[in-house]
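Researcher: I'm comparing several assemblies side by side, and this is the next one on my list. It has 785 residues spread over two chains. Same procedure as the others: predict the full complex and return the structure.
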Amino acid sequence: MRSLVVGATAGLGRSLASHLAARGSNVVLAGRDEADLQRVASDVRARYGVSVEVVIADASVPIDLGTTLTRALAGGPIDVAMLPLGISIEGDSVDGDPKRAVELVTVNLLGTITASMAVANIMRTQGHGVIIGFSSIAATRGRARNAAYAAAKRGVESWFESLRSDLVGSGVGVAWYVLGYLATNLSYGQHLPLPAADVDRVASRIVRQIGSARGRQFAPSWWRIVAGLIRHLPFGVFRRLKT
Amino acid sequence: MDMLPVASNVAEPLTTARRIDHLIQAWTARGLHRRHAAVRGRPSLLSISIRSAVTSRRRQARCDEPSMALSTLDGALCVCCVVVPMPESQPRLPASGASASRPPPLPTAQMRLTSFDGSTSVEASTCRPDRGRHWAALAARGPLTIRGGGYSYAPASLGSESLHIDMRAWRGVVDFDRTTGILEVEAGMSLGEVHRLASPAGWHLPSQPGYPEITVGGCIAGDVHGKNQHLAGNFRHCVRAIDLWHPDHGVLHLTKGDDLFELTSGGLGLTGVILSAVLQLERLVSHTVVVTTSPIEDAVSTPLALRAGSASLFSYTWQNFTCRSRVGRGVVYGAEYSQEALCVQKDQRYTTLNPQKRGWPVNVMGYPTIAALNAVYELSQRFGGDRRPVGLLDFLFPAARKATYFKMFGRRGFHEAQALIPHLHAADYLGALAELARARRAPVALASCKLFSGASKFVRFDGEGIVVAVNAPRDDRGADFVANVHRLMLEHHGRPNLLKDSLLAADTVAASVCGVDDFRAALLDFDPARRFRSVLADRLGL
């Protein structure tokens, strides 16, 4: 088994790489920071004894990301592709810095699109594989805060719906996870109204469900209820929520 | 390039630093940016002073870090400096492959942090670096306090106005050679994780404290010990090398024998951030250990009983100091590997002790409760069988399943006083301690002794003798008892463990720890700005 994780330098991506390797999968780690990727590679290799490839790829240049992945994956079949790539920015609001908003959407949405296109082409040819994308609870409903982040993640969901439709009958499975709060540096120091989940537990569940989960999933699963509530709140109430 | 002799047979680091500094200044003034200098002396000592001089010159002259190559040539240490003026100065940071892109944010959090013994609580600003480029963000911040698991009893990982660096996300494996048992890990890795990684491959750490959530970096900074100290020594004995990051010096690779390695091992986290460590593990003979118990009749006979079991895998005592007669009676524990087939302990669970939410709402450890608990425990140990098999986890981490004990002290916590008493005075000290406990009906919740062997340097808790530890509730009666324990310790030439005892005063430490002045001077020499602080260091004037 050979798995790809794009955005493996820290947080959920790093943990997914570790859990994939723990199940005996060789891993291809893609990310922007070579030193951090090498740290993850050493860790995975030393713990699980699997083969680890490191691919330096920058999602802020989405076309390059796609071609880099296509080239890097040419060495053999790829069974699983996980795409937890993304950044967040300070002051992500409608009146924020347009350059930073473009940077965020470029990485989070366009980077995901080009990466999944590259992987989908390979998997369609080989006739099997699973592609897993990552959205966020923030995308459930747009708010004044995290505006560009939510828009990009909503775009990711839409893209993965299209991807799923397109790959029906090809032997390639598609799933995307709507993530609740995770205890990573993205949420560190924030006063959150609901508990942040342990990243390792979430990653462990996602890896366990590779063979079965298809379509939209929530992680942790109880966020499905929260998302339902948020979706049905009247606008006047929703806009007053501080979270 | 030309060779310029700086000094010959220089052994004094400050002199060397000054001479190197003058040399670089002269080169810069003359517009000479690439020069060699040859210095004679101990390479480990000189490398520190040269780095220090070069860094200080860089800050003053707003130069890029002069690249340095240290090598030995004909018995001399050569330093090659390339000094290039730059608009901005940046110390060397952990290598990063994406310098052009925007660094990932390093968020900070405000939280209340409390020392494990409950003595000190601070409103702290904390961050949790998990990427190489986070160190760049930290280089401009200060003062800094480093935190691992937060299990040091005294407030060594708390700072009054510092940014606290939580190292627990920096916990990867760098390399593990399963044939030689050489394990390189990042410093935020916990001992429990080292155990989970190493024991299936047939290895274990030869020396470690009793709780699995303690980090490797914390063990090095505290130069901690286990219950087998007389055989394995302190933690530094299994450390071959460390990578240390300091905002002004960048990343320094230190190996055993380097002066800065010696200063950092047991340096209480005041020399910089330990990023990673190379550990030499020991072969695991079995996954099961047979623990033996034998009785001790009173406090004075403790040293003899400990020495009788000194060949054992570990040797320590549990003693009852709240009984009416033969105060200090109890048991001495020994251990040997089981000769039966390897059988991995199935139950690897343990209660997580959160230092921030440790206590029950009330302290139930009054004198009557303590006396009753001690009596019951004594009976169970003395008459519960003298040989029992114990799983490896319980053997390596005896405190892992004893979380309730610490919780019973309530939210105010407890006092611990731990002192190393020379063999010559150990029996007298224990006799005096027993008399003190009896006369004052002291609430001694735990009294334990173990053998120690080694040599002390700086403020490390090491040396030859017997270590005596006592716990008491954090109240006036407990504080009065501990104050008297300090007096007895001084009378019997003991040495206190700074990491365990929050009631130690600076003058007690000055009178009992002979390396304090050397430690302070060496720290100042390496880090004149003293970028790393802690409540413990401030209180003891370190």
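Model: For your comparison table: The radius of gyration of chain B is 25 Å.
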